[in-house]
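[Automated response] Your request has been received and processed.

Submitted sequence:
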Amino acid sequence: MHDRPHKLSDTERLNRLRLIRSDNVGPRTFASLLRHFGDAASALERLPDLARRGGASGAGRICSEADAAAELAACQKFGIDLVAPGEAHYPSRLATIDDAPPLLGVRGALDVLTRPMIGIVGSRNASGAGLKFAGTLARELGDAGFAVISGLARGIDQAAHRATIASGTVAVLAGGHDRIYPPEHNDLLAALLDQGAAISEMPLGHVPRARDFPRRNRLISGASLGVVIVEAAHRSGSLITARMAAEQGREVFAVPGSPIDPRAAGTNDLIKQGATLVTEAADIINAVTPIMERPVMLGVREDDEPLDFATDASDRARIVGLLGPSPISLDDLIRMADMPPAIVRAVLLELELAGKLERHGGGLVSMI
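Generated structure:
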């Protein structure tokens, strides 16, 4: 259960920013390093050695103290707070996911981030009926005390945001706070910040790329009690959000549509697969009310497991030999290697810091 919010020291915040901005350090790697070494400064000291053990040919870039201080100053000037899990205004449910951002840039009316959230996402090329329903649903959820969270995209996302400007909505950005996509939603973002908030894990100046949108989607689902898919064609990005929500243990809701409208094909499939059918806000409220009554718990996650860096060359070679370009589950790798999980996890961490390992959803890993 979460205790009262704590506050990082200025030094620890600076060092955590240096760590997450260093080469080959993602949210999972960050969490493992912090848990094993106790603080960001100690982890930073060990980065070169661990990357070398993983087979790095050269020293990876470690974010300098000056660069991190400059980013913190730029954030302050822009009205952005960089908050860590467990601090005030870091969404409590988001902190429970395996790859929670170590530092989240937040701005706006930040109290909205402490409210229960419902994600609403869907087609960028939405129908008029879909846009109208998304707005109605969002408005009713806002009136019931929920904060609607979405991705500021064209179509369903912007309809949900516009309907909840007065009640409070949260925009999750794929790029930095100063690189809004699509650019025509700059005015929408400015309007929603009066009663709502914007969040991003990306540094200022970061222009969103294709791979940043699925990363953004995990924040929408992770911060939410559940996610509503209003319209989604087959292979839609909204279906990625639905899959992530299911993997994170969140509720998945889908609005049914005409079987002859391709924009409803994905949502109708979700309903066939067990998503909760939604025709009104009460369907969502009734489903999430029991969840809201339970405390938010930080369960045991992969990153909570211990690491053992006392690995000899033969053990490392055996683990590396089992890896390849095809993803393999961590559990299968541990079983095939016939080694303690603490050693396997440590070798994977070294490989990742060397830029040789890629982590996929569902606990899968592969060599790059």
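Summary generated for your ticket: Residues 128-143 form the longest helix (16 residues). The longest strand covers residues 104-108.
If you did not submit this request, please reply to this message.
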